[in-house]
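ingest -> fold -> write
write: protein_1
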Amino acid sequence: MIRNIPNKYTQSMLLECINETHFGKFDFLYLRMDFKNKCNVGYAFINFINTEVVASFVQQHVGKKWGRFNSDKICSLSYATIQGRRALVDKFRNSSVMEEEPSYRPKIFYTSGPNIGQEEPFPGPTLNKESARGHGAARRRVSSAPPHNEP
């Protein structure tokens, strides 16, 4: 996770900053957003392609100020609970964030071939949205029902 990101950064600004030094060296990026206030919450999930790239990112960015908005925030990096592109995609593909505007959604990228560094289409959900909503509604109805008193 990239931490201490100035709240005014958009995902495209963060992507531009990372691409200056690590273009094609990561395959997943998601800047967490506060949808109500339309600003980020200060951290992003990123999946670098290998540990050498992580070390390079640390050397070039961690402990340094961000380049925009005259912010005093210092870039830091930490491990997230969920690791790896596949696990991150699986976590977010069924998330309600995928219903938000495209600039607020997680992104995946090509890391080889002629499209290196370009955004890749994000896989669709694995759950049927209607059945998922229906099951959730049924659970809410059951759990909110008053207790049944038997004679």
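write: protein_2
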Amino acid sequence: MGRIHICVKRTFIFVCVLIGIISTLLLAITLFGHGYFHQSEEIEEILPGIVVLYVLEAATLVLSIFGVYGARKEKKWAVVLFSVGMSLASLYLFVECVNGYQSKHEMEELTREEHLAMMPLSGANQTDLEGLYNMQTNFKCCGLVQGYQDWGTDIPISCLCSDEDSTDFKCVAPGNNTRFVIHYPNSDMSEDDDHKGLMDEHMLVYKEPCLPILISFVGYDIILIIGTLVALKALWDVGVVLAITILCQMRRKVDVPPVIFTSQPPQYRELCDTAECLT
């Protein structure tokens, strides 16, 4: 077994390999996300965060390699480098988790203000309308705050509640003066009966407004990200603890009494009987 206990050594190597695999996957996801948002207008805002992710993930990948090398070859400097580097990375991740939790309420309020700025919905621009239509279709909701009433008399087709949805979601019947809109009101098409029509008395629309649902999803996403970071930090901390344990075992010395060999025969002293010694 050498100076390192075999169980601790194998566990440490397994943790290092696991950290390396996770770092590689995260690096691939970051690279894919960078390519996806490369042509978008938001790239300037998220680019510093992407750079930080590149550095952090590449550093943990390299440190995991040093950890495996140090444990297998019993190289003290490699294990020390792993423990110090992962401790700093874990500390950074802890700070980010705290900042993320503190910004949860701020992100929810920012989402609320951005969507309330679209009111009234009848005057929203084309880009906002497309986002609202997709949100209503995915979340099975209508409007932002007061439900279908936020749309006035022209209710978009994405608010219509089908017979299947009526059993799982709350649906209500709008007023008689409303009509459904098949195409976007701000599109280049002329407003004729081809894309607008009167609501049938049996037609239902989703009752729940979309803004509370969206805000709850934003909060849930933030908590999910923080939970993932906490789990990743815990794995890094386990690696640091195992690295420190291995370092302590490397420093431990076993005291063995020295054995001296000589070529000269030992000197014996002849003992006499009691009677002979008295004469």
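write: annotation protein_2
The longest helix spans residues 210-251.
The mean pLDDT is 80.
pipeline exit 0
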